[in-house]
Every structure is written in C-alpha cells, then in structure tokens.
Amino acid sequence: MNIAVCVKEVPSGTSHKRLDPATNRLDRSGDSELNPFDLHALEEAVRIREGGADVGEIVAVCMGPASAQRALQKALALGADRAVLVSDDSLAGSDIAGTAHVLAAVVAKQDADLVLLGQQAADADCYVMAAAVADHLERPVVTQVADLTVHGSGIRAKRQTEHGYDVIEAPLPAVVSVSDAINTPRLPSIKAIMGAKKKPLETLSAADAGVDAGQVGESGAHSVVRSVAPPAAKSAGVTIEDSGGDSAGQVVELLAGKGLI
Amino acid sequence: MAGLLVYIHHDDGELSPQSLGVLAKAASLGGDVTAFLAGSGVDDSWAGSLGGHGAAKVLVADDGALAGGLSQPIVDAIESPAREADAVLFGAGVVSADVAAGLAARVGSGINCETTDFTLGDGGAVAVRPALGDTVMVESSFASSPAIILGRANAFASEPTGSGTAPVERVEVTVQEWSSAARMAGREQAETGGVDITEADVLVAFGRGIGGPENIPVVEQLAKALGGEVAATRAVVDAGWTSYSMQVGQTGKTVSPKLYVACGISGAIQHKVGMANAGVIVAINKDVNAPIFEFADLGVVGDVLTVMPKLTEALAAR
C-alpha cells in the first residue's frame, strides 16, 4: 500500500498575515512553514507504517511557490520517503477549485491507495480540500477523522459531527482528512532532518503535472475577490505577559471591575 | 431554474438549524428560493413544511443510497439541480461542507467558505467572509455559476419566516458506484445529561494546552473558585479526555456566558464560533500568536498550569 499526503505551505504563525492590496492575494513574502494541520496527516501516515501495515512508500504532494520546497523538506524529515512539488507561475492565484484540480492531477500519478490531508489550511480556514480532491479522483472520502484503522483492503474511520460520532468504513483507494486530535505529531530528529536532504524532491510544472490550464491560476479562478475591508470595530483587548503566575492579580482586578466576581 | 438552491441538511429527520438559517437569509433577498432535501422515505408534508422557513419550492431526492448520512451520494443527487442554479447555499456542518466541496469539484465552481453574508445581484452572487483570523472581511464574486456558498456556523439565525407549505417536487437520483462505496458502520449519539453548559454564567474551558487529562482537576478548581462550570474543545473530546456534552464549538454547543475563561485553547475558528458571544473572554495560553488573543478581552501569555492555580488562589483570598 502506498500513501500520499497532501501538504501546504502557509505563512508561519510568527509572521504577520496580510493580503497584498495590489492583488488581493495572501502576501506570501514573509516567513512560511508547513501547515500545522498537515503534521497530523504526516504523523498518521508514519504511524500506519509503524503499526505493521505493508506501506510501500509515503509521498508528500504540494502545490505552491518554489519556497514550498522548505515545507516539503520538513515533510521528508517527518517520514515521507519522497516529495513532489507542483510549482508554476500559471498556478498563482488559483482558488479552491483550481487547487483541488491540481492536487488530484498529481495524486492520480502517484499510485497511492490512501490519500491523507490535514483537516484544514491554517491560512484559509477552509476544510473542503479533501472532499473536493476525492470527487475529482472518484474515490470515497471521510473527513475530520479522529481515529483511523487501515486493514488489508479498506479503512475504518471515526469522526465527530454535530450529533456525536460516526464510524465509517470505506474500501481502498480512499481519501481521508484527519482531525488535529488524531495524534500528537513528533518532532523530527537531527538525523531525520539531515536524512531528508538525501530523499528525492521532484518539482513539476503545471504541464508536467497534467493540469488543465483553463482551471487554474487567477484566470481560471471561479471565485474572485472584489474587495477587502476591515471588520466591524471591536474594542481591542489587553494582552499581558505572565511570569510565574504574577498575572493573577490583574485578572482578578479585571473580573472584579466588571462585576463578575 | 435560475435562482438560489439551498441544501437542507438533516440528521435522521432532524433539520439542521444552520441550513434553516441560510434558507431564511436566502428568502430574505426577495427571489424564489428552492430548498433541497435528500434522504430515504422522505415524507412530502415534512418536506413541504420548509415553506415555513422561506422555501418557495422543495426538491426531494429520495433513494435508499441517501439513507446513510454520507456526503458523496448527496453530491450525485444535487448535481443536476445545482447546475441550473445561480448559487447553491449550505449551512455550516461536517456533512454539509463535504457536500459543498464535492459539488464544487464536480461542477467546476468557485466555493466561498466561512460565509457570513451574501447577496444575489445582476452580476450574480456575492459572498462575504472574515479571513486571516477575522482581521479582514473579504467580499468575493463568482466568474461562473453556480456559486457555491458555505456558511459559517451560527452566522445565520434560523427563525421561521411563516407557516406556509411549499410545493414538493421529486427529482431523479442516480448514485454512482464509487460514491456509495463508503458506508456508515455505526453511530454514537452524543450523551445527554450532566451539566448543561449552555445555561452557565461562567465557563472555564480547556484545550490540549493543559497538557493532559491529569490536569483537568486544576481547571475544575478554577471553575469552582469562579462559581462556574467546566467546558472543553473538540480536540480534547476527540482525544477522549472528557465527554462530548462539555464541548464548545462548531460540532459542539454554542454558549454565551457572562465570563469565558479559555485555558490552553488556541482559538481555532471551529471553537470561536461556539463562544465568540461570551460577555468577557479571558484567555491563558503560552503561544503569543494563538488566534484566541485576537478576540480575548484579556489575554495572559504564560504557562497555563502556573497561571490557573495562582488565579484560583487569588480568587480564594478575596
């Protein structure tokens, strides 16, 4: 069994996220990192292998600018055997539909029985990629999975919905997005980080990937940003640094001031 | 059938208030709105009662393959009417989001997630969503139809707009083999009973930042000192640290206490939509970049296991 893990490069939590006023696209000039939600998908792939399943290879797949190679290096350090980056100027400005089209095209070439994704991208707060990719691939999908078992020919997945928990079974090949509760991702060892540099990282153009040029990039986007405005004003909160619990007095003061205690 | 098509999700016959909220909003825009219901053994008079929530017409897809509560057969069922619509609208929800995403891929449409407002004008649908940690409002239009619009949880109120009955029309359903390959093997209903956190004036909620279930007593002590109850995030419920009945957020409860103390909670959007209307929000988290600090009234950047007991102590000393 082979596993493909779709990953994304996102602006890192420590860099200020902003939209470029000229293009209304996310400004990606600052620091970036591997989408934190994707760490759970990579970790789950490694755990499936460690759990005794016959996993041939784990391939990390990404669409993004050239800088996304760094995110893929991390994916390799975390246990992927090889990585594929689809990077092409024509892909910049792709919307969700365009991105799903690209990921599905690349995944289709990887001979993967199980496709894993994180539950959402930290920059877009969207949780729709897995179901969109699955529809392109014409494979069953289970999203937001909190507990996953892979057996010979299928998967058993537990996920939370608004009423409680669903347990869903599906045959392989299948697409699964994992919840951030499914596991605690490990940190890569120095040895794994060094070893990642020797693993294959292939970069494909949109044409190499077999992408339909009409579906991608800004010109192929079906959803178009018209304007960006500040949200309705809200009184700014106060943030204080605690040291050894010394903030307790200030918290009590605030609560007392508002008549809450 | 130009116009708006609203997917109405239901869980074994229990209509989703998120879907009904989007239906009411769509109806308020003036045009004729069509509701779409999928299931097995759908009763006509039940379907027609959606007229009381703003539907001018109800399309019913009724097939054994739609009984399981899984998204992919529903994509097959809604595809054909969706292709005729200007926009297809979805309320928040796990299955609703999966249907919206699958449909967007199927018909090659743009999809707008986390939508908090939408209109339909001469140029087609326009949708608004907060983005980048809700620091900006982004307004999007669509280059093709149908536009796929997925609402944010609790963004649209589900008040009935009348007592009318809408005409019901049954649509043909052809479910593909691959889209019915997954099956529901079991369901666990949320347990009921215990404390109703939606009634509490003070909630002390915890996330994975408290380290482990062995630290829940520290949270309980703080809640007791504040005269409140304990609540939790999805992550700790999914991880089995505590029960689903205590969960706040998109797939849990929506709460609006006078005081909400968030301990070791990052404040992801799925949590925020369940508690953003609390009177005063105090957040304790070691990560200064945690989204929760964007909407907390008082944020404490520090070790939650140090701050919680000190706070309990300070409250007891008063």
Report on this structure.
- The complex is a heterodimer of chains A (261) and B (318).
- Chain A has helices at 36-50, 68-77, 96-108, 129-137, 190-196, 217-220, 248-257, and strands at 3-7, 9-11, 32-34, 58-63, 82-86, 114-118, 141-151, 154-160, 164-171, 174-178, 201-204, 223-229, 238-241.
- By secondary structure, chain A is α/β, with parallel strands linked by helices.
- Chain A has one domain: Rossmann fold (3-Layer(aba) Sandwich), CATH 3.40.50.620.
- In chain A, the strands form two sheets. Chain A has a nine-stranded mixed β-sheet with strand order 9-8-7-10-6-1-4-5-11, sandwiched between helices. A two-stranded antiparallel sheet of chain A has the order 2-3.
- In chain A, strand 7 (141-151) and strand 8 form a beta hairpin.
- In chain A, helix 2 (68-77) packs across helix 5 and helix 3 packs across helix 4.
- The N and C termini of chain A lie far apart (58 Å).
- The mean pLDDT of chain A is 92.
- Chain B is α/β, with parallel strands linked by helices and 318 residues long.
- Chain B has two domains: 4-180, HUPs (Rossmann fold, 3-Layer(aba) Sandwich), CATH 3.40.50.620; 197-316, 3-Layer(aba) Sandwich (Rossmann fold).
- Chain B has helices spanning 17-28, 44-48, 71-84, 94-107, 216-225, 234-238, 269-275, 292-295, 304-316; strands at 4-8, 10-11, 14-15, 33-39, 57-62, 87-90, 111-115, 117-121, 124-131, 136-142, 147-151, 168-171, 183-189, 202-206, 229-232, 259-263, 280-285, 298-301.
- A seven-stranded parallel β-sheet of chain B has the order 7-11-6-1-4-5-12, sandwiched between helices. In chain B, strands 15-14-16-17-18 form a five-stranded parallel β-sheet.
- In chain B, strand 8 (117-121) and strand 9 (124-131) form a beta hairpin.
- In chain B, helix 3 packs across helix 4 and helix 5 (216-225) packs parallel to helix 9.
- Chain B is elongated, with a radius of gyration of 22 Å.
- Chains A and B meet through helix 3, helix 4, strand 7, strand 8 and strand 9 of A and helix 3, helix 4, strand 7, strand 9 and strand 10 of B.
- Strand 9 (164-171) of chain A pairs antiparallel with strand 13 of chain B.
